[in-house]
Amino acid sequence: MPLTKRIIPCLDVDHGKVVKGIHFLNLREAGNPAELAKRYSEEGADELVFLDVTASPEKRKILMDTVERVAAEIDIPFTVGGGIQSLSDARAVLCSGADKVSINTAAVERPSLITKLSETFGRQCVVVAIDTKRRYEKERGKFTVETKEGGCWFEVYTYGGRRPTGLDAVQWAAKVEELGAGEILLTSMDRDGTEKGFDWELTRSVSENVNIPVIASGGAGKPEHFLEAFTFGKADAALAASIFHYNKYSIQFIKRFLKDKGVEVRL
Amino acid sequence: MPKAVIMDYGVGNLYSLKCALSKVGFTPLIGLSRILLKQADAVILPGVGNFSAASRRLTALREYLVNLAKGGVPFFGICLGMQLMFQKSEEGPGEGLALLEGENTRLPRSVKVPHMGWNTVVVLKPTALFENLESPFYCYFVHSYYPVPSDGGVIYAETIYGVKFASVVVKQNVFGTQFHPEKSGSAGLKLLENFLNFVKR
Q1: Quick one: pLDDT band at residue A56, thresholds 50, 70, 90?
Q2: Is A12 designated active site?
Q3: Does ipTM top 0.85?
């Protein structure tokens, strides 16, 4: 039996509460982080991701006590992101019980931070989160993909999806691998919260161009979407939020579905 | 409750390990001193950091630790901690504790490295650690190197990732897992609980 595909519930946290928006906006409350984390850990989640979604746009530090409360409740790997700007921010998060840190805005603004984190804590600790939107207007030098909706490239956004950077997501992913990232958390803002399915064309484009694990994110609405992310999208893991928060499908249900379709998962 | 001393030789998350050890009934203590080790009912070599750096930080305590292990104090090495119980590593210069004979080598280039995620642990023979665990079971791995024991007899479980490697090694009171029991859900906690029962014996 090979390495299994991972199912990762994501807790987007705003001032200590789990929230979920659509296209990164209109956040609404979805529960208590520690309680949800415990539930997901018991229900068979393979990992958890905790993102302080307003830390970066509000330029403040992550809520460390929430991180500690979550870490104490679970016995699976745990990634924390949002507003991590420096080695000392990362160290504080890791000492509070996180196994990996996820950086996004800071990685774009200071790519050397990726290398510093990797050299200090090890590559396995460093997740680079990439938020993207499709761009259908042709631009020279961009990694263009033919999709059902036409040829497009994928633009990287920072500050919780508020700022376009002009960077090409596929090229940026290859760059962060070279700089020392251990994993890529790849989110389609177009699909975020829509439950219309992962943008597996995006996932595949990145996965085929890097040699580190890629987590597909944004758009999970039903079990078939996870299957698409793993088969068409070549993802190593798939992340979802609303589908789990609102009890649409349990993690076990999705895993059984995948297992029946021949995808290796931990049951 | 038995005291488990977690050797603080690296950088990274020791909090989860501490929480997991208390959950199963240890009193966890974190540090890197003889005073602390004198109280140890068990010594834990955790899985954070880099071989050379950890080896350097253990230099002053090396002889003391080896004597503790030889004196029968139970040792549990996790991931890098397990690798440190062997002699050397391809990861970099420095000596391990040599409680077990063999060297650590890099995972093959044919697979994505680090090996990160849940993989199957296949039991080869029984040990106290595997009480009430059914083979195979899933555990969480994060590593780029793995130990190759000179004596195959110490290998109690194996895992396949590009290559078949020892995922659990045991020699009397010395235990090592290449995966992270503190991150491996109920199977991992069971293993730590079994270790506690061994310590209590």
Answers
A1: low
A2: yes
A3: yes
